[in-house]
């Protein structure tokens, strides 16, 4: 377990050039994602409103790379009326892979996903 945690933090530090990965904090719980497990990755965006500047930046960044989202089987879920902005990436296995308090760039998001073993297997066609 210690090795996995060390590798996870090392991978996040190397991948994310902006924002900060944080431990899960108080706020909205994850929605029920059982229908997506083993089929899709899910980016859960918590926001006080769809008009917040963080939400608008995140939305614009993702709109610009819609083909990349489809290629990575990534679905977006937005939860409004959250106390603060928060982005969480949930892997196909149902585990939270990223939890951060600010928008994530498409480049950093794709790098994080593409470094995952399941995604590497998808790329190689296994």
Describe this structure in words.
With 126 residues, this protein is of the alpha+beta class. It has one domain: Glutaredoxin (3-Layer(aba) Sandwich). 38% of the residues lie in helices and 19% in strands. The protein is built from five helices and four strands. The chain has a four-stranded mixed β-sheet with strand order 2-1-3-4. A hairpin with a 5-residue loop joins strand 3 and strand 4. The chain is globular. The two termini are 27 Å apart.
- The CATH architecture classification is 3-Layer(aba) Sandwich
The CATH topology is given as Glutaredoxin
Helix content: 25-40%
Order of helices and strands: HEHHEEEHH
Mean pLDDT: 85
Largest sheet, order of strands side by side? Answer: 2-1-3-4
Inertia-based shape:
globular
Largest sheet: 4 strands, mixed
Low-confidence stretches: 1-24
> What class do helices, strands and sheet pairing give?
alpha+beta
Strand content: 15-25%
| C-alpha termini separation | 27 Å
Radius of gyration: 14 Å
Count of runs of 4 or more consecutive helical residues: 5
Whole-number count of domains: 1
List the helices and strands and how they pair.
Layout: H1 2-15, E1 41-47, H2 53-63, H3 66-71, E2 74-80, E3 86-90, E4 96-100, H4 106-114, H5 117-124
Parallel strand pairs: 1-2
Antiparallel strand pairs: 1-3, 3-4
Quick overview:
By secondary structure, the protein is of the alpha+beta class. Helix content is 38%, strand content 19%.
């Amino acid at each position: 377990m210690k090795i996995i945690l060390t590798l996870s933090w090392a991978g996040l530090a190397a991948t994310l050039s902006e924002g900060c990965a944080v431990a899960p904090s108080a706020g909205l719980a994850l929605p029920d994602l059982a229908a997506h497990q083993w089929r899709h990755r899910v980016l859960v965006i918590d926001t006080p409103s769809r008009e917040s500047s963080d939400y608008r930046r995140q939305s614009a960044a993702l709109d610009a790379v819609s083909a990349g989202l489809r290629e990575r089987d990534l679905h977006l879920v937005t939860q409004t009326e959250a106390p603060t902005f928060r982005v969480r990436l949930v892997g196909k296995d149902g585990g939270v892979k990223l939890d951060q308090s600010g928008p994530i760039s498409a480049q950093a998001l794709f790098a994080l996903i593409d470094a995952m073993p399941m995604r590497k297997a998808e790329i190689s066609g296994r």
